[in-house]
Structure formats: structure tokens, C-alpha cells
């Protein structure tokens, strides 16, 4: 699962008999890194060896080990027939006729209705991109990049103009972040290879970031959003406690790396300003070198060569480094608030084995649509629709939202929509609530 990377040849043969018959109990026993089975359309596959070669990363495969992965498989892959040929060597059998098609706590009625909705949307062309829309998105980024440089080149490097240049560059970087997100999810071109090429160009040359690092991290988030030990976005490195479960667990165990009852205050000093310029960049450098991903490294180097060639003549080496650090800090504020207001106030817990729709709706919410909100968030204010249909071009989210809302109402699944202000405030409020839960458990349990 996960749409990143390119498939080249089928994987290693699975162990066991291709005509085996298994129960869910037998499948669920194969759920660790060295022994992974999964079920897709009632077929049982041994993915233990293939996981290491999976284009979307081995971790996202592991998150569905011992489970039914049918819904995630359909959500991530644009050409199911093509991808299924890579599954054939991994096939070891199927579920027994007496076994249900879905495991554990998954709602069969919700799954059936969602599959029907997805088929309807495919028929209506909701997964087809409008080339002009994405050309305009790329155009605005290139224009902003050029404008920032021209301002300094023509009028000089005063503090006021430098600040204006930094703001324009931060806007370009953030909008490039939303655009790379589209290519990374294979939302733009029918040919996967074109999406990959443009993803590396935008992510590597326009942003100076590893495309593969982003893919392997982000697909895990989509596969298991807000699930501890599976979604890297809720791995807070002991800086914060989030949700309602983790704070109590930390409190009972008397874990106190930081005064978590004040986390809603120090979040403003640690989260928004440092996520991209500090944490993300350290992880990118480590990941690229550890994986020896020389292609992504070359793309990243091309960005920094271009940036330094443009700005060193006017700012010098240290001035240019200071400029890019400030731009990263501005971008980081924008990125953190947009991404966290959709997820942080929602349910964050250990694995519950929910069906695709229920899992995504419990962990995501929408922000009201407007021309500004859509542009400011890269259409991720339609976070629910994006998580349900990660391959859908973002310009279609507003068209499918009423149908998703109707599906949720039919099955009694909360569909949450907030104002932008309420979403931002809820980030702080949720951190305070989690911190209070930790303090109560730490002192009294």
C-alpha cells in the first residue's frame, strides 16, 4: 500500500500453499515485522519479504499485518489490476467460506455503502484531474519565487524589503508543499511515472526536501491516522502528550519529561517555529544518508545551489543562510497550524481496528470552505474527503463533500466542520485538556 515509488517486477514468492484456507484467527497471528500476512478481497497474502521492497515503504505494509487491508489497498493504488499482478506471487490462500469478509470491529454496511460511493465517483470522473488547475498552482509558485528575488535585486536588501522577500518566499514554499502533496498522492497525472517525476521536481528542486522521505512518512499517516505507534504525526518524542489515553498512561507511569500541564503554552515556542527548520530537516538528512537515496539528495542539492546562486551575491553566505532559516520558520508556522487543526483535536488512541470510513472520520475534521481557506490550506480544509479518497484531485473535494456527509448521516458517523478560528483555537484547547488529564493522573493515580 501507499502510492509512492514505482513497481518494476513482482516480489518474492510467499510461503505456504497458494490454495490454503485460513480463519481470521490464523491470519491475525502473523502480525509482526518478521511474519506479515494480510487479506485483500478475501485473499490471504504473505507480504513478509515484499514489505522491504514496497514502493510506499515497509512500515505502511506492517501497519496492516494480520488485518484486512482491502479498503486501504483500494484507496492508495490508482491501477488495481496492474498492482494485483505483484500480489500473485505472494498469494498463500483465502479466507474460509465461514469467515466474514471483514475482521474485528469493521462495519460491513458502512464498507458496502462506501464502496458504492467510490464506484459512483469513479464513474462521474471525480478522480480525473484538470490540468489547468495544477498548471496555475505551479505558475503561482514560480512567479512568487521570481518576484521575491526581483524585489531584492532591483530595490536592495533593506530590512523591510528582506522581510517582504521572506514572506513571499514562505508563501511560495507553502504552496509548493500543497502542490507536492498532490503529486505525491498520484492525483494529477494518469501515468504514475509522471506524478513521481513532478513530485521530485517540486519537492526536491523547489523545496529542497526528499520526496521519498515524505512518501514513506505521509502514507503511514493516511493508513492509520492518529493511531499511536503507526501514525508518525502523533509521535511527539515525549515533548507533548495528546489525546485522552496517552496523558493518563504517562501520568499513571509517572512519566514527566516535561511539565505537560503547560504544554499548551510551550507548544507556541516549540511546535510551529521548529518543526520544519529543525526536526524535519534533521530527519530528512538522516533518512537520505541512511537509505543512500542519492537521487533525492541530488534534487535537494539542486535547490540549495539555485537558492545560494540567487541570494549569495546580495546577502553573502551567512546572510543567505539566515534568510532561508527565517523563511523555513515562517513556512513551519503555516504548515503546523493548517495540519494540526484537522487532526490534533480529534480522537488519538491505540489501534481500534475500525473500518476505513469510521477510522478516518474519527481522526479528521473539515474547516469551512471559502476562496481564502481553500487557498490557504491547499484544499486540506476538506480533510475528511482527502483522507477518504487520497488520490482524488483536490479541486473536486467540494463536489463530493455533500455525498460524503450524506453517507455519514445515514450511518450515524459524526461529520465535523469548523470555522478556521475554531480549528486554530481547538489545537491549543486540546493540548490543555490532554495536559490536565496527565496532571490529574500523575498526582492522583
Main beta sheet strand tally, sense and closure: 6 strands, mixed
Mean pLDDT over the residues: 94
Strand content: 5-15%
Cα shape = globular
The percent of residues in helical segments reads 55-70%
* Number of discrete domains: 2
Unreliable spans? 4-17
Q: How many whole angstroms does the radius of gyration measure?
A: 23 Å
What is the string of helix and strand elements?
EHEEEHEHHEHHHHHHHHHEHHHEH
Q: Count of helical segments?
A: 17
Terminus-to-terminus distance = 41 Å
Number of strands: 8
Domain Cytochrome b5 heme-binding: 19-96
InterPro entries: Cyt_B5-like_heme/steroid-bd, Cyt_B5-like_heme/steroid_sf, FA_desaturase_dom, Fatty_acid_desaturase
GO molecular function, one term: acyl-CoA (8-3)-desaturase activity
Pathway: Lipid metabolism; polyunsaturated fatty acid biosynthesis
